[in-house]
Please model this.
Amino acid sequence: MEILHVGATGLVGRLVLPRLLAASQVSRVVAPTRAPLPFSDPRLVNPVVDFEALPTDAAWWDVDAVVCTLGTTMARAGSREAFRRVDLDYPLQVARQARQRGARVFALNSAMGADPESRVFYNRVKGELEAALEALGFPSLVMVRPGLIDGERQERRPGERAALVLSRVLRPLLPRGWRPSRAARIADALVAGVLAPTPGRLLVEAEALA
Model:
């Protein structure tokens, strides 16, 4: 398989990429990033791109499957418009290009509560992306919906960190679906979704990621 992985430098993406490279059935991983990755691999193609101007004629769009872990936060984006750009527009552009070139599988790191009709802006954007991806007609579509992600981020997120510390303490008392979602389990679900795709739409909810 040849797989396109966008979002390879984030918390979950950093765990997805080595799993893909370790899989015997994967012959090539294309990981476009804004800056070069700090390592190389014989099966890794790492084009440096501007997500505002993705090349539409690049040969590396010819893949069998896509794993998308792109995402930001409202605080980092700075506005709702900028957040939508990163969390909806960029992934959808990638999906359209890959689907047009023949990709048959798409696995998305989405969010618990994703719903295009949600009153919560974050959940609404995630739900709109899921709906837009369904409309593209991928034969296999995997939606992984974590809650609060339990893992070590490179950037500082004080509010999220405080919530994570509290939820770790309360983990035994919380319903399984409300426990923090382990980053490694999210990565495992995404990789399994593209390496062993099932026809139709597969949802992996937070209960399976705790």
